[in-house]
Each structure stands twice: as C-alpha cells, then as structure tokens.
Design a protein that fits this description.
This protein is of the alpha/beta class. The chain has two domains: 167 residues, Aspartate Aminotransferase, domain 1; 257 residues, Aspartate Aminotransferase, domain 2, CATH 3.40.640. 37% of the residues lie in helices and 17% in strands. It contains 13 helices and 17 strands. The strands form five sheets. It has a seven-stranded mixed β-sheet, sandwiched between helices. A hairpin with a 2-residue loop joins strand 11 and strand 12. Helix 1 runs antiparallel to helix 7 and helix 2 crosses helix 7. It is globular and about 70 Å long. 45% of the residues are buried. Bound molecules: 4'-deoxy-4'-aminopyridoxal-5'-phosphate. It is an enzyme of class 2 (transferase). Its cofactor is pyridoxal 5'-phosphate. It catalyses: (sulfur carrier)-H + L-cysteine = (sulfur carrier)-SH + L-alanine.
Amino acid sequence: KWRGQVVGVNKKVPLSNNRLSTYVNFDNAATTPPFKSVIERITEFAGWYSSIHRGKGYKSRLCSTIYEEARGDILNFVKADPDYYTPIYVKNTTEAINKLAYTLGQDTDNRNIIITTSMEHHSNDLPWRKYFKVEYIKLNEKGQLSLDDLESKLIKHRGKVRLVTVGGASNVTGYLNPIYQIAGLAHKYGTEVMIDGAQLIPHHPVEMSPKKAGERLDYLAFSGHKMYAPFGTGVLIAPQKTFASNTPDQVGGGTVDIVTPDFVRWHTPPHKEEAGSPNLMGIVALTEAIKILNEFGMESILNHEKRLTDYTLKRLNKIPDVILYGNKFNSKDRLGIIPFNIDGLSHESIATILAGEGGIAVRNGCFCAQPYVQQLLNISEQEIRARINNPDLPHPGLIRISFGLYNTFQEIDRLIDMVKVIVSNKEYYYRKTKINF
Ligand code: PMP
C-alpha cells in the first residue's frame, strides 16, 4: 500500500546483457528515494519561493513563517518538548555532529572525554576525536555494545565525561542500541547523551522527552535524505541552553543581533547556528516527509520492515556458503539492515553481479564504519597494519541489504534466487569477476 507513494520504485534499469529489468533498491540505509508527495509539494511550493527572514514582501513573510513552523513539526515527530529543545537546521547528520563536537569542544570545562562505541559510523566518531579523548565501549562477539562496560567507563571517568554518543541503530548490522537505558546511565553519572539518529529516525518511533525524565535524549541528529526527502537537509536537536552563550562554528548573516566594527552580539538559538541563507526547499521537503511518515505510523513501518527482515534472514540462512553477521536468526533488537558475504567471492564481485545480472542495488564495503567491519570480520591488527602500509591491497568488506517501507517480499525472492544462482555457479563467477569486474 505504501509502494505507490514513493518515486521511481518501478523504474527499469539496464542489466549487463543490455536487457531491462525492474530496479530493486536494497540500499535504503545509504539514501531513500523521495515520497511522491514530497516532490509534488516542493514543485508546488517553487512558485512561493523567496528569502527567509530577509524581506517584508508577502512571499518572504510566508516563507519565513513556513520555515519557523516546520521546527514544531520536527520536534513533534520525535516527541521533544519545545520549551526545552531547539531544532537547528543543518545539511545532514555529519554536519550536525561536527557542529555539536565543535560547540562542546570550545568549553570542555575539564570534561574532555567522550564515550562512544566502535560500531559507529565515521561521522559519529571522527568529529569527536578533533576535540576530545574518545573512549570506545566494548562490543560482544555478536557486535552488540555492553552496558556493563559503559557503566564501568562512566564510573572510572566520573566527572570527566562530556557526553555519551551512540548510534540509535547501526548502519552495518541494524542493531538497535538501548538508547533510553544508555541515557539513564549517562544521567546517573552526571553526563549527557547524544543519539546519532540517521538510521533510527526513518524506521523506528523516538521519544526525546520520554515519561521517565532520567531517560531524556539530550541530543539527536538525523538526515532528510534517509527519510524519503531529497539531499541537503538535516537536523540537530539540542537543549536550548547548550547554544545559549557559545560562539557559533560558522558566522555571518543570520547569526547576529548587533554588529559594530568592534562588537558582536549573537542572535538567540537556533538562528545563531544557521549561518547564511537557509535551505527552505529542503525544510519543506523534510516536513512533508514527516507528515507522510506520521500518516503511515512509525509502529506500522517498523513492523512491516521487521517482517521483511525475518523473512530474508530465514531464507538467506538456508543457503550454503552465505555468511551472515551479527544476529542471524530474527529481527529482535535490529532494524532492516542485513550484512552478509558469500564464501569464496569478494564483496565487490557479489555486489557487481547482483546489480549487473539481477538489477538489484546493494551496498558493499565498510559503510563508513571501518572499525566495526574489522571487528565483525575478525581482521587482525597485523592485517590492518599491512593495509595501512600498502594502499593497493583490496579492502575487506561485506554486502549490505537495507530495507525501506516500500520494499516487498517478491523483491526479496528475487534477491534470494539471484544469491542461489551465484552460489551454485561460484567457480564460474569467480573466474568471470576476476577477469571482467
Ligand atoms: N550516521 C549513520 C549511522 C549513518 O548511517 C550515516 C549515513 N550513512 C551518517 C551518520 C551520515 O549521514 P549523512 O551522510 O547524511 O551526513
């Protein structure tokens, strides 16, 4: 029922033999296609396009109102109390996290430790390394974080931890981290929590201000292009007080209240953090996407994607030579992201065959989470060193399928058939991919 609401899902694409095949997109963790109504809304809105907070003309005032009112829709979507939080528009999750790292990094107040995990996307790891000492929570053999290790780190570094930051869901295994328990622990030991919501927000309901006050999520970052809107818009939601007295990371038009040749008074948040003319089309697209997600219902989306995941795991598990990573059996504690390999073929070859012969788009490689993939593949220190010293060595990696709300069981059947063909003709594909790909 949702398939018809998404743009381009029935597009035909050329295979390697030049025949056309209906495209199957199992790479939604990278980017989702947009909702039809998002494209209709921005097309219709184009006629009303004008400057934000910079004019008294009718269109300009209308655009400024739409831009500001969207903040309410965004806070509402993640159940964030508008009296406490401010939503700052950014271009994506990466920019959101860099902004927060910069801001907290300017005034560490002797709390110079960030606790995170080694299952993070590089965007929730590298920005912190610029300003803080980063401690990584241990993972178990299935690749899930250990709450005990988090607690012992919080005790060991009590008074020195500026923030605990974790992905709401991993972009490699789809694991859902127990974010409310993590928030509870962070607050118990006097620090705050940030959730990288890039993978979580489009697939799972979130409450920033939950009933149990101790489990409040202090910061949340996410991207519009993973939730059925186009590229270029993301949000950082933060307590207003965090941005009350800092100097913004980017300064210029829109960030100031008073400027003289030798004096500057910054605007109040969120405006002081949104330098330059903003991306209103992106905000219009994002709020329309949120409206549609609300209409569908996040619980229903979650349930549908869980059923797709259970079905895929069950079928992949039965194919010899398919190596599944993490929890191999069901969708418990995970979203619709499944990493696997086929014994004897490279991830590069498998992804190329799936696309070229099956019209099936998956992602392969390390998914901007190299430390996590190294752990899942049990890659030794020695091997990592060898690769550092020799950039020509091939990168290890995985195949990742990731679902969107519009994917179907029939599409999964096509993937399974194709994987079976690859497995039964492994020798042939090994020789072919070695030569051709
Ligand atoms: N965090 C996670 C968990 C992600 O999956 C991604 C995107 N792959 C990002 C952060 C970065 O998102 P963006 O590229 O939109 O900044």
